[in-house]
Amino acid sequence: QVQVVESGGGLVQPGGSLRLSCTASGRIFEIYDWRWYRQAPGQERDLVATITGDSRTRYADSVKGRFTISRDNAKNTVYLQMNSLKPEDTAVYYCHADIVVLTPARTLNDYWGQGTQVTVSS
Questions:
Q1: Among 2, 34, 91, 99, which residue has the least CB neighbours within 10 Å?
Q2: Is the Cα dihedral 50, 51, 52, 56 positive or negative?
Q3: What's the pLDDT tens digit per position in 94-121?
Q4: How many Å is the maximal CA-CA distance in the chain?
């Protein structure tokens, strides 16, 4: 009924930039909060950034000043602009959304993207 698909990962040198995108499609009534998480090998999945329905943002201390989360409600899409990337930013990045779907009754569910690999290395 609802799909959440990420794109934009890849290999970048330290100090470089990447922009991740995540788009939801399907029987969507409204999207509340979007979040980006990341998971490095052998580690837990950590919250990186959140953007609320009214576009308030929060960031993990490790990415403040370097990453920017934004959303385009008309496109049901969230972005993560990542600048000044460091090797320790290497991880699989996942988007997550709280979505009110039409099933046909309006129901609030949460959805995960499939993950996109970000590798920061020279």
A1: 2
A2: positive
A3: 999 999 998 778 899 999 999 999 999 9
A4: 51
